[in-house]
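Ticket #4471: structure output looks truncated?

Reporter: J.K.
Steps to reproduce: submitted the chain below (115 residues) through the standard prediction queue, then opened the result file.
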Amino acid sequence: MIFFHSPGTPFLFTQQILKYCPHFMSVNADALLKGKNMDGVYDCHSDNGSMTVDHISFREVVSSGFTSMDTMAITYCEENGIPVVVFNLLEPGNISRALCGERVGTLIDQEGRVS
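Returned output as attached by the reporter:
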């Protein structure tokens, strides 16, 4: 099952997460796919601020102030064990790759970066 949310208005994403999360839980969703007009979560602490992070934990996103999603939505996904994949919606083929479980964009989950 695929739930779709049109991007745009700030904080509307949180409202949609809160509205649809019970449905995610009832269908045992594997992940929340968040298509954006960027390649993933950017590391603002990198030398030029334009490097995307492949894998990051919910806690790192919140504590570092990354802005790919608002804090309430990230926290809700964390509390409910729903990994989030942030990827470039405008890149041809990315939706299919994300749906097939291929690595696209940034994976946000409990574990975060593997050292």
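Triage note (M.O.): checked the attachment and the full token line is present. The longest helix spans residues 12-26.
Status: closed, working as intended.
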